[in-house]
Amino acid sequence: MIEIIGKEKRKIHIEESKKLSDIYSAFNIDEDGFVAILNGNPATSDAIVNPEDNLVFLEIFSGG
Question: InterPro entries recorded for this chain (predicted)?
Answer without folding.
Answer: Beta-grasp_dom_sf (IPR012675), Mopterin_synth/thiamin_S_b (IPR016155), ThiS/MoaD-like (IPR003749)
